Amino acid sequence: MSEKKSNKKLLIAVSILLLLVVVAGLVWFFTRPKAVSGSKNVTVILLLADETDIVHQISTDAEFLVDLLSEQSLIPDSDVLAGFVTTIDGITADASQEEWWMMTVNGEFANYGIAELPVIDGDSYEFTLTVGWDF
Amino acid sequence: MKSKISLIDISLIGIAAALMIGVQLSLAFLPNIELITLLIILFTLHFKSRTIYMIYVFSIVECLIYPFGLWCFTYLYIWTILYIVVWVLKDSRSALFWAVIGAVFGLLYGSLSSIPYFITMGLAGGIAYIVSGLSFDLLHCFGNFMVIILLFKPLNTLLGKLPYISLESRKTD
Questions:
Q1: Does the beta carbon of A82 lie under 8 angstroms from any beta carbon of chain B?
Q2: Contact residues for B124 (Cβ-Cβ < 8 A; gap 6+)
């Protein structure tokens, strides 16, 4: 392939990438969930497989759910890094038993993961230990 | 017939698919930092049409390992799209060029994988799926660029030195 043709291909690819990054960045910026600063009172509820509940009433300044769960030591650092809950309050979903934590906010499925979900005063964050991939 | 798959091909497909599964699992804890895009680019450049078999062995095993969901349908076409793009642009050996292609693919990954969601959740559900995943797509874009710019050249050189590849080159010359 000639160098001129190669450079043209590279230029086109870089232009497409830059255009897409700008468009995606702008859409993300204007649609991203907005953090709420200040003190909030929220509830974190664990619903276990034997139908028992563990309820945490929490006052926090955390802006996103991941920060709240981390500051309360409810999830391990590995889950903070991954943005995905496998262990909460010391209870681990056993993947070999097809267990996983289903997250809902005020009883509704969340549109975002814990890293992007803003903490809002009065909200309830439920984690239900769910069994079976076919849920 | 020349298109027949030899025993060497079957071994190569198995090893390459196992490598893809291994690196995917080992990096699974990092959201949207992956080596699969890089490996598919390299495999397509070196192993040509055998890459399609590698992709589908990898995809089927992934669907067996992880909880079955709409993402399994995505895996049936999304890596093949990358394979086709690389096949069309296969003349280039520039790390920067492939890093840019990988970055574009990473950025579009969420949009490309939204097709089953448009079908099952309608227009609004599909758009919501794309928009809610944009931050991950931007991270995927950056991650792919860095991974490919750093690893393409050494791995491309390494694959070029494989005895199997040399044998293939002699056969087709």
A1: yes
A2: none
Which one of B68, B127, B131, B144 would you mutate to disrupt binding with A, by most A Cβ within 10 Å of its Cβ?
B131
Residue type, B67: P
Confirm whether B12 is domain-assigned: yes
The domain tally of chain B equals 1
pLDDT score of A135 more than 80: no
Q: Model's pTM, two decimal places?
A: 0.78
Residue B1 domain-assigned (yes or no) = no
Question: The domain containing residue B34 runs over which residues?
Answer: 7-169
Q: Given pLDDT bands bounded at 50, 70 and 90, which one contains residue A42?
A: very high
Residue B2 lies in a domain: no
CATH of residue B68's domain is 1.10.1760
Cβ–Cβ < 8 Å for A110, A103: yes
Helix (H, G, I), strand (E, B) or coil at A130: strand
pLDDT tens-digit series, residues A47-66: 998 888 999 999 999 999 99
Q: How far apart are CA B62 and CA B101, in angstroms?
A: 24
Classify A131 as helix, strand or coil.
Answer: strand
d(CA A89, CA A69): 9
B101 to chain A: which residues are within 8 Å by CB? 13
